[in-house]
Amino acid sequence: MSPAETRDVRRFWEELGLPGIFDVHTHFMPKNVMDKVWAYFDSVGPLTGMQWPISYRHDEDVRLNTLREFGVRGFTSMIYPHKPDMAAWLNSWGAEFAARTPDCVHTATFYPEESAGQYVRDAIVGGARIFKSHIQVGNYSPNDPLLDPVWGAIEDASVPVVIHCGSGPTPGTYTGPGPITALLHRFPRLPLIIAHMGMPEYDEFLFIADEFENVRLDTTMAFTDFSEASWPFPPQSRSRLVDLQDRILFGSDFPNIPYTYAEALNAVQRLGLGDDWVRDVCYHNGARLFGI
């Protein structure tokens, strides 16, 4: 983090008259898990030809200080399992992290397994305020019967779920709008936050948000030069973003982004949808949702 970048980020929200940034999509997780995530991104370039350098590959305390210096007033610890018997352990870590990190929204996760309903209920009772579901990495259907008690508990408690369900950067067996539409027809009050604006199926997920009033979307990686090169947001759909002004939340994917934090913010602003839209997306919507 350079002093110039810190100045750029702070200038962004100061000029908008905001108290800071609310970032609904940041990753903090146990070191051994984060190291494996970074190793995956390191391997992406040789396999796909798409280089993915980690811009903020630092120790946890440095990353926390970076967000605070930027003026990020609230953020999350997006944790997610890729196999059974992992989610409950991650939830224990997430609870401990939130207890020592008051500006982090207490984050939990789940996986389709017999114990999921119980540990999700335990997490909610324990203060979890947001969940993360990664259908692509976990390679599971959101409609797996083992998840029915999970969705029921989350719907009843009205705890938001950031869910990576779009088919970017590569399609998964269960990604895309179809499984999510089926899920919402069974649990229509679910407060889902569609990660990455549903990239690349932007329009389809915008239609889902039109149909289900508790569905939101986060801007994570969307609109940046990096993503526009491969998964461009359709210009004709920008007016639909205005219609959903109160249900779009800023997300950065910090620290696992191949560009600067300032670029993520500038990508939102250069859509040209007006300062009030940017204020709501970059701070007010998240602050209202989580009572910051």
Automatic annotation (TrEMBL):
Residues 23-292 form the Amidohydrolase-related domain. InterPro entries: ACMSD, Amidohydro-rel, Metal_Hydrolase. Keywords: Lyase. GO terms for cellular component: cytoplasm. Gene3D superfamilies: Metal-dependent hydrolases (3.20.20.140). One of its GO terms (biological process) is secondary metabolic process. GO terms for molecular function: carboxy-lyase activity; hydrolase activity. This is Amidohydrolase-related domain-containing protein. It comes from Rhodococcoides kyotonense.
